[in-house]
Design a protein that fits this description.
The complex is a heterodimer of chains A (50) and B (434). Chain A has 50 residues and is α+β, with helices and mostly antiparallel strands. Chain B has 434 residues and is an alpha/beta fold. Chain B has three domains: 58 residues, no CATH class; 232 residues, Aldolase class I (TIM Barrel, Alpha-Beta Barrel), CATH 3.20.20.70; 65 residues, no CATH class. Chain B contains 14 helices and 15 strands. In chain B, the strands form two sheets. In chain B, strands 4, 5, 6, 7, 8, 9, 10, 11, 12, 13, 14 and 15 form a twelve-stranded mixed sheet that branches. Chain B has a three-stranded antiparallel sheet with strand order 1-2-3. Chain B is globular, with a radius of gyration of 23 Å. Classes of the chains: A alpha+beta (50), B alpha/beta (434). Strand 1 of chain A pairs antiparallel with strand 3 of chain B.
C-alpha cells in the first residue's frame, strides 16, 4: 500500500523572482528555501478559493 | 532518487526529483529500500503508476538555470551598536569587529538608490533593517522607509520591509510604525527566562528577559494578522530547546523559529556529540506540535513549514538564497558585503552603495554557485529543500562556499523528516475530521 501525501502543483511560470529573499523570512542563520512558499502560487490559489 | 524513512510507526517515501511525499506500509518501504521483499501484483502496479506519473523516481534537474543579475534585496545594518551584549552574537555584540556606529541617513538613502538602480525590471524589492539593534537608530530607519516608498512609487516599484529587533526599545511609537510599515518583524527571544538570561544580557551583565517579554507580548498582540516571528537561538546549554519553543507558544506567540547557535564559544557551540540529543528534541517538539494542532492550539514553527505543493519553484530551490548576487548587506559606512554573516570581513567587501559593486569577481563567484556546484549534495535527499546550505556557514565552518557543514546538514535532514511526518499527520487528522 502506498498513498500520496503531497505532490507539487504544476507551475505556469517559474523563476519569476516574486518570492521573498530566503534570508528575510525568519532566522538569518539557517535559512531554508524549502520552508518558503511560492508567492505566486499562494496568491493564485487564494483567488481561486474566493 | 528516493528517500525511504521510518518515523515512529510510519513509513514514508520522499521522491527527490518530483518533490512528492508518499506514505506506505512497512513491506513497501522495505521493497523500496532495496530489500528482497515480494510485493503483490496490485502493490507493484501502484508503484508503476506513480512512476508513470513522475511521482516516484522522478527525473531530477541537474542544470542550474541562468540567474538574474538584478538586485532584489538589501540587509541594511542600520546600527552597528546594540543595547544588549548577547554572549553568542555572531555580530560581535553588535559591533561587527569594528567601531560601534549607526548608519547616517545619507548612507541609508544611497543604499535605497543603489537598490532601485540595480533592480532592473524587478517591481518588488526588499529591505531588512538589521543590526546590532535597529531601533537604536529609529529616526534614520523611519526616514529611510519613507524615502524608499516615495522613490519606489516614482518608478512603479514597491518595497517590503522587515526589521529584526531584540524588543528592548519597543514602545507605542515604534509599535505603531512597525504595524504600519513592516511586512515582517523578527523578535529575538530565546524561550524560558533562565535560558534567555543566561546569554542575552544587558551591558551591565543582567538578564534581559524581564525587560523585553512584556514589550514583545504587547507588540505581538497589536500585530493582528501581519507577519512576525519570535525567533530564538538554542545553544549547547539548552539542548532541551523544545521546552523553549513550547514555552514561547504558551506565551501566546503563534509564529516561532528556533535556530542552532552559530558561534565558536566552546561552552555554547553545537558539536557532533550533541546531535543525537538534538535529533530526539526535534522529534519531541514535533509530537507536541502535532498534539497542539489537533487540540486547535497549533502554532507555526518555521522549520516544520514544508510546502511540498506550493513551495518554491525549481529555479529558486537550485539557486538558493541569492546572497552576493541578488541580495547584499550594507554596513553603516555604506560598504557592501554578500550577506550579513560576511559583514566586516575585508576579503568579502564588494564595493559600496555610492560607487556600486567594484569587486565583480566576488559577485561572479556567488552568481555561479548553485546546488550543482555543491558536489557533496548530489546524493542527498534534502538537496532541493535546503539548496546546499548557507554559503556563509559553509565558508566559516568548512572554508569553502560550496562545502556544506555536516552538522548543519544533519540537523536540516532531521527537521525535514519531522516536517514531512507532521504534514502527513495533519492531513490524516483533517481527513478523520472531515
Amino acid at each position: 500500500m502506498i498513498k500520496t501525501i503531497a505532490k507539487p502543483v504544476q507551475r505556469k511560470i517559474t523563476g519569476c523572482g516574486e518570492c521573498r529573499s530566503t534570508c528575510q523570512s525568519a532566522c538569518k542563520t539557517s535559512c531554508t528555501v524549502g520552508n518558503q512558499s511560492c508567492e505566486r502560487v499562494t496568491r493564485e490559489s487564494k483567488i481561486e478559493r474566493k | 532518487m528516493i528517500h525511504v524513512f521510518n518515523y515512529r510507526d510510519k513509513h514514508f517515501v520522499y521522491d527527490v526529483g518530483s518533490g512528492s511525499l508518499h506514505e506506505c506500509d512497512e513491506k513497501t518501504a522495505r521493497y523500496l529500500s532495496g530489500e528482497k521483499v515480494s510485493l503483490s501484483k496490485e502493490e507493484l502496479l501502484e508503484l508503476e503508476t506513480l512512476q508513470e506519473e513522475g511521482l516516484l523516481y522522478g527525473k531530477e534537474a541537474d542544470v542550474c538555470p541562468p540567474k538574474s543579475d538584478k538586485v532584489k534585496a538589501l540587509c541594511l545594518h542600520i546600527s552597528h551598536d546594540c543595547n544588549l551584549r548577547c554572549k553568542y552574537c555572531f555580530a560581535d555584540e553588535g559591533a561587527y569587529h569594528a567601531t560601534r556606529e549607526v548608519m547616517p541617513l545619507e548612507t541609508a538613502k544611497a543604499a535605497i538608490d543603489f537598490l532601485l538602480r540595480e533592480s532592473g525590471d524587478r517591481t518588488v524589492l526588499e529591505v531588512d533593517f538589521f543590526g546590532g539593534e535597529p531601533l537604536m537608530n529609529f529616526d534614520v530607519l523611519k526616514k529611510t522607509v519613507y524615502y524608499a516608498k516615495e522613490e519606489a512609487a516614482k518608478r512603479g516599484k514597491k518595497f517590503l520591509f522587515t526589521t529584526t529587533t531584540n524588543g528592548l526599545l519597543l514602545d507605542d511609537e515604534t509599535i505603531k510604525f512597525f504595524n504600519e510599515e513592516m511586512e515582517n518583524v523578527v523578535l529575538s527571544l530565546d524561550g524560558r527566562e533562565q535560558v534567555h538570561d543566561a546569554v542575552r544580557k544587558t551591558p551591565n551583565g543582567k538578564g534581559s528577559y524581564a525587560a523585553v517579554i512584556k514589550k514583545i507580548k504587547k507588540f505581538v498582540k497589536s500585530r493582528g494578522d501581519k507577519h512576525y516571528y519570535v525567533r530564538g537561538t538554542f545553544t549547547a546549554k539548552n539542548l532541551d530547546f523544545a521546552d523553549d519553543v513550547l514555552f514561547l507558544a504558551d506565551q501566546g506567540f503563534d509564529s516561532i523559529s528556533m535556530e542552532p547557535v552559530v558561534t565558536d564559544i566552546e561552552e555554547l557551540k553545537i558539536k557532533e556529540e550533541h546531535l543525537p540529543a538534538i535529533e530526539k528534541e526535534y522529534e519531541r517538539l514535533c509530537e507536541e506540535y502535532l498534539k497542539r494542532y489537533e487540540r486547535g492550539e497549533g502554532f507555526n514553527f518555521f522549520h516544520f513549514n514544508l510546502d511540498l505543493e506550493g513551495g518554491p519553484c525549481l529555479e529558486k530551490r537550485v539557486s538558493a538564497c541569492g546572497a552576493g548576487n541578488e541580495y547584499f548587506s550594507v554596513v553603516p559606512n555604506g560598504d557592501l558585503y554578500p550577506c550579513h554573516q560576511f559583514a566586516g570581513e575585508e576579503r568579502w567587501k564588494m564595493g559600496d552603495v555610492f560607487h556600486g559593486i567594484e569587486k565583480r569577481e566576488i559577485r561572479e563567484e556567488f552568481a555561479k554557485n548553485c546546488l550543482f556546484t555543491r558536489k557533496k549534495c548530489g546524493d542527498c535527499f534534502a538537496k532541493f529543500i535546503c539548496s546546499g546550505g548557507c554559503s556563509a556557514n559553509n565558508f566559516h565552518f568548512c572554508g569553502d562556499l560550496n562545502e556544506p557543514y555536516p552538522l548543519t546538514c544533519a540537523m536540516m535532514k532531521k527537521r525535514i523528516e519531522c516536517a514531512m511526518y507532521a504534514l502527513a499527520q495533519k492531513r490524516a487528522f483533517e481527513e478523520r475530521n472531515r
